[in-house]
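Sat 14:20. Reprocessing the chain from the morning session after the first attempt stalled halfway. Input below, unchanged.
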Amino acid sequence: MNYFCRLFPRTDKSLSVSVPGSKSITNRALLLSVLAGEGTLSGIQTSDDASVFVSAVRSLGYDVEIQGEKAYVKGGSRKKDASVYVGSAGTAARFLTAFLGLSDGTYELDSSEQMRKRPMKPLLDSLVSLGAEVTYRGEEGHFPFTLKGGKRKNEVTVDVRSSSQFLSALLIAAPVFGGLTVHVQGTHGMAYVDMTVKMMSSFGIDVKREGNTFFVPAGNYRACDYVIEPDVSAACYFYALAAITGNTLEVQGVTLPSLQGDVAFLDVLRSMGAKVEGTTVTGGTLRGVEADLSAFSDQAITLACIAPFASTPTRITGIGHIRLQESDRLTAMATELKKLGARVETGEDSILIYPSALHGGTVKTYDDHRMAMGFSLIGQRVEGVVIENAECCKKTFAEYFSVLDALREGI
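Finished this time. Tokens:
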């Protein structure tokens, strides 16, 4: 399905929109509740990624019931021999691999073709060093593979330069398998690791950090009722929309402080000249910025898509790792921006975008939800922009284009 963008009007009304619960928090809370033995989660995201995570957990023998935006974890016990499918969900892929790699049992793990292209080797190498055995059934370092779990040591090193999820995965699983000291190579995505540590504390496990070393105690998670924050990653598309259209917009339920590192995108918009009051954004004349997005790189495409409307160039740095996500995002966004008339230069881990007079065209999304949502922003200012395969948004926000249309039509 293609989506034909329409220009978004300027209005004096204050706009308000709601977004789903955070995918990152939903999937962490699901696994933490499973490890606690029970729990109730409110405001969950019901996207493809979250649904795949629930299905994978059920395949391992756990009882999880979904009713609307609530999840009820009712216990169960881990099977010691199971097949687990993680789809395209990075959190399911990394979190469950670490959990099973530290446990006793043998597991057949597989994924979608998209996830098969994404890196797993740093996490698997760490698990092997702890005592697990991995037999690859395809390309080394990637899905599919057979994992025989085991843990003989309490200290490990993990490289997070391609994904901070490797570290979060080890931290979450470690307490129920006797604790772990984790030495970290790289600094990418540590805002998501901070989220993990804070959530673990809410479930009764306190992680200590000294420099690049994390100390996870042995212990049992505490069951609790947990409320999921709205997805700030999704909210940022609407904040960016306000910034480039001159409107005032709030996203319902987003508050400060937030567990989610993407809230730092509000600071980027402020530095570009938008008015930011709390979590309400009012657009205006924008100027370019130099922004290191290594801590919240999901917003690289969002920033790149509003950068051509700024009065001076914008350089986005710290994003080399996004070449290894749902698509080669750095190459994809440069290619599609150029297609629409933008002047763009790329480096190994950066992109430079100049003020540009854009024109319409058809945007290839590479089956990447963030390409679809990010490039839709250009279509709110430029006539004739078409988003190919818009349904790829169902990975995290199936209703995105409906919400966008309803917001426009409500003016």
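Residues 2 and 388 are 5 Å apart (CA to CA).
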